[in-house]
Amino acid sequence: MTDPNTTRRERAPRAFEAPPREETTLDLPDEAGSGDGEPAHHLPGRRGLRWGALLASSVTALVAIAVTMSVTQMVEQLFAREDWLGWTALGLAGIAGIAALALIVKEAAALMRLSRIGSIRETAERTLRHDDSAGADETVRALSGLYGHRRDMAWALGRLKRFEGEIIDPADRVRLAERELMGELDAEAGRLIAAAAKRISLLTALTPAAALDLLFVAAQNLTLLRRLAALYGGRPGSLGTLKLARMVVTHLAVTGGVALSDTLIQHVVGRGIAGRLSARIGEGTVNGIMTARIGLAALDLVRPLPFETLEKPRLSAIAARLTRSTGAPQAEAADDGTERRPQDGGGRL
């Protein structure tokens, strides 16, 4: 039994230190990039046989053999009838063969020019990532060779040449080349894209048949791709334009740019264009914006240098110009289809 006279001793509070907690680290894969600075997001390369290309090559070869045998048989029959008919047919066949060979050489040269622009861009991107001196020299030398024969680029090349003896970091040399050479070309590209988008927007609203719409939009988009490639030095032929169109579609699919965002649709239709004027004009405006999106995607493929110091033309600015052309009030944008950056009195090369 507890003695009631015994007082209860209360213990004073004491502070205890918690034992150190062991931190557990998880080794997760690096999604931003690899250890050497290379981007982690790459398009999957083609493996194995390209069955589509093999089919096209086989069919083309069979058609060429059939045409050759048919022409040979026709020439033999004409020789059997009259000598002069045979010689005439043989001469015409020779002219046709020479013309076909010239077209093949022209298309091959156009494809090589597109590949050359892609190689220059890859070298420039590698130089910007790794600050490679050899890559900077190769990029500037390739750009000088690409634009050396063009009179409209003579002044820009002269300005770039003044810095040859200067001590400049390799990455800054690429930025300097972009600033000196790409400025006027980018402005002209913005005007070409805006003009094509406006043309499609207006003519889609005036064309009565949907089939004519499809033909016209396809033709205008191919023309825009060819003009953009020629502007930056590509000068593609028919096959080169089709290849560029396929590359643009692939680029749009990878970057998620095929679908218009809700914000952009509200930007165009939310002002009451379709309801205030007509659904046809609204459809034409959307077609024009899609054409502008295709043109902007093409810039990532036909421009020999990545956008590093200069502003890329913005889709919102071109959309504003389209809606202004239909009479809808929109925010002011630059006349060349680019958004103006506030001047802060300086900037990097």
Automatic annotation (TrEMBL):
Transmembrane segments annotated in the record for this chain: 51-72, 84-105
Presence of the UniProt keyword Membrane in the record: yes
GO cellular component terms, semicolon-separated: plasma membrane
Primary localisation category: membrane
Highest rank taxon of the organism: Bacteria
Localization of this protein: Cell inner membrane
Region (Disordered): 1-43, 325-349
InterPro entries (UniProt xref): DUF697, UPF0283
Skewed-composition ranges (Basic and acidic residues): 1-24
Keyword Cell wall biogenesis/degradation found: no
Keywords for this protein: Cell inner membrane, Cell membrane, Membrane, Transmembrane, Transmembrane helix
One matching Pfam family: DUF697
UniProt membrane topology term: Multi-pass membrane protein
Family classification: Belongs to the UPF0283 family.
Protein name stated in the entry: TIGR01620 family protein
Organism listed in the record: Kaustia mangrovi
Taxonomic placement: Bacteria, Pseudomonadati, Pseudomonadota, Alphaproteobacteria, Hyphomicrobiales
